[in-house]
Amino acid sequence: MEMEMTHEAKSRVFSRVLSRLENLVVKLKGKCVGIAKNIKKIAKDDPRRVIHSLKMALALTLVSLFYFVRPLYDGFGVSGMWAVLTVVVVFEFSVGATISKGINRGFATLTAGALGVGAQHLALLFGTKGEPIVLGFLVFLLAAMSTFTRFVPSIKRRYDYGVLIFILTFSLVAVSGYRVDVILVLAYQRLSTIIVGGATCMIVSVFICPVWAGEDLHNLIATNIENLANFMEGFGEDYFTIPENDMMSINSKKDGKAYLRSHKSVLASKTNEENLANFARWEPCHGQFRLHHPWKQYVKVGALSRQCAYHIETLCGFINTEVKASMEFRRKINDPCSRMSMESSKALRAMSSSIRKMGHPKQVMIHVENSKQAAQELENVLKTMLYGPELDIVIALVPDATVASILVNIITCVEKISEAVHELAKVAHFKEVVDATVSPETAKQPVKLHRGIVNPMYDDGGDRKEADYHVDVIVCDQKAQKVVIGGCTEGKVGVANSNECSNNVNNTSVVNPPPIIITCM
Amino acid sequence: MEMEMTHEAKSRVFSRVLSRLENLVVKLKGKCVGIAKNIKKIAKDDPRRVIHSLKMALALTLVSLFYFVRPLYDGFGVSGMWAVLTVVVVFEFSVGATISKGINRGFATLTAGALGVGAQHLALLFGTKGEPIVLGFLVFLLAAMSTFTRFVPSIKRRYDYGVLIFILTFSLVAVSGYRVDVILVLAYQRLSTIIVGGATCMIVSVFICPVWAGEDLHNLIATNIENLANFMEGFGEDYFTIPENDMMSINSKKDGKAYLRSHKSVLASKTNEENLANFARWEPCHGQFRLHHPWKQYVKVGALSRQCAYHIETLCGFINTEVKASMEFRRKINDPCSRMSMESSKALRAMSSSIRKMGHPKQVMIHVENSKQAAQELENVLKTMLYGPELDIVIALVPDATVASILVNIITCVEKISEAVHELAKVAHFKEVVDATVSPETAKQPVKLHRGIVNPMYDDGGDRKEADYHVDVIVCDQKAQKVVIGGCTEGKVGVANSNECSNNVNNTSVVNPPPIIITCM
Question: Which residue ranges run through the membrane (chains A, B) (predicted)?
């Protein structure tokens, strides 16, 4: 049968294979286009990335001359390797990071090399047999101590790479097993090639399209503040615009929600800001920035901006509330609230532009004062809105009502977390914890009698096995979420080791041994 | 005179030097004690740090055997160096990080080595002169391309170190200038020592007191949720406890504020969570965690917890409000609000313990439901509290009042940012930007006449120089914050190139060229 395959069948198979191949080609093409687009986007987002790649390649090609140029190779030999190694690991995106790593590497190599030679001298005193033991002990000791210092926050922040190179160089020099005179030549060669490699990195980094970490930090902080301003402006326009009819409100609201995401980047920029500030400290003066520019203050401004972003994040939760607001009330507070938004937006924008231009933030205080006046006005509006006993209630109500509203939002948030945790329990195959030996089957069959021994389970996860408690009958009423132990009637709860019954699961008095309370879901 | 120094003078000098020395010793002692305490604290905070340091030292001493043991040294020679180098850079705190770096290093060395040998073969075809040029070009090309791929987020997350080693190895092999047969022996030696180094790291990391990134992430998420629970519990007890007399309230409030900081760690744990999740993916199954444990879901739960922490941060702003709350109102909403706090705290605690024990979060839904019921009850309380037209006002007021309250807090926040920016302007020596050529001296002398040419300055920082505008007289009244141009009377503003005067600075119609508006501070 197979041999007698008709032409038709053959062509069908052929066309199927062809269509599959076509599919594959189309898919591959799509993927390639996707990757190309992604690469283009990455390059377009920050063209300095392309320049950085070319700079790195240039520095690497430059130090390769150690191998290509005969006189250099004759002078340094394989030590030229260290120049290549240095360039690869030291060259970083920003000038500050490159200088920080370069200086760290240089100093660490120097001190560790000297200490390593000292260790070899010391070990020689202990004879041929003692030498490797002493050296091994010294390597162990210094490696352990140095590794531990990397956990000290202040060292980790600035000298982490230096400590790493210190361990590396000390170990290499101490155990290399050469005679000391050879080691000195070798140390000279290595140190000089490392210095050449480091210098190449720094020169290329500083003089060809430099990327200054300090400037990046400066711009990041200004952009973050501007993002907050954008939110406040968008919010002021969107929330406090009273729609003339419902259709218009839906249209305008759909268009104007872009601002809702403008503060999100501020929420997540902490690590970035701190890294940039650490690198910026290593940079020489550049552009408008002096040597000891107060980078710490930028971090402080950044932290306060983040604080503001937290409040804004909460505010977002109230923009789409389903509760129909009273237009009467909204109209009353509209003017001061919208001015509060607008003036704080203006203040933030003025700060951002003042930082960008490095000019004194003169306009800022006017807008801050205006916004505070608007807040005062809001209070006045609330006061004049109602007279008599209601006045006190409404004024006093505002903070508590706010707390209550935020609480309601937190509850929504907790529910979301709980959904995510349930999802986690599902995908991570969390085991079914059956409360007090009530098996899932039992739970499904509401009224069922049991007789036996149960162990109490505690909320804290402890499994104290002091005693087993005898339980006569467990009746589990799933719907009422109530449990009956010890033969009590439905809806009541029994207390272990007793024949008492209680109406309330929560009210059972704590006896020793404690009562077994079984809840069903 | 100096020669005739009395005994008294001598002893006075001596005692002064002595006391200074004593001071120095005391200071040094104090500093040493401080450092010792700091080190002790770091070790005590996480004893695994000490163990890690010892493990690192052990691994390093083990690979040093390449030098100390004669047969090994004869076999591998200086290539033993690569084992030491590998251990120093690959050995990390957690198993996941170590494995990730080790595997990255191994694969990158293998592929880059092979490509390097290929590049040398290719370059040989171009003759003695062409060889270095072709090799240089290849190094440049691959270095640039590889460096750029490090900006692709997905590669950066998992293979950053591999790409680094790829560049390093390719450059070293390609430019090393050895004959190819020598290179193969060398490549074998290096690769095997790197594998030995990497394997040593992984074995020591996995089998001696392993630190699992996955377990750390698991515990971190559980701890974060527990911290939120602690806040909600503390808040519920603190805020909704109605003091019987003022003295008691002050005392109890001072003691019970520890919870106010419990959510702060959640706010800042994003980077840590993401790093741990990246490392956890590389770890083999351990303890309760399978190979493909859903680490991504942990990151998701973590992000939602952070969302909750944002709300809590805002809530903190309302705990110490100076507005005297109406006790009547507080008493009414007390029960539902306190139950909302308590039930969400219980729900969070149940989730945390469920994650810790890896058991199904059964209790959680009950508490979530309870908290939602309490929220419903709050609405009912508000509804029954007031009748008639006031009802609608109060119910409708709550969301808007909340928005207004948060706005007030944002304004406080903006003021703090503005203070920090002013501080920044001071310490960073921001230049005084004088608005529209009004010099600081002018601003200080309120009523002064000027005549000349001014250039308009724009808010966006642009310096459009289409035209200069002629201004006759500038009268600057500092107190009224109003500006007079063009000879208008005080309190009015002139429009450039015209003789019109306006009562309101903001109401001047925009003419082309635009009016010059000068504000004074």
Answer: 50-69, 75-95, 107-127, 133-152, 164-188, 194-213
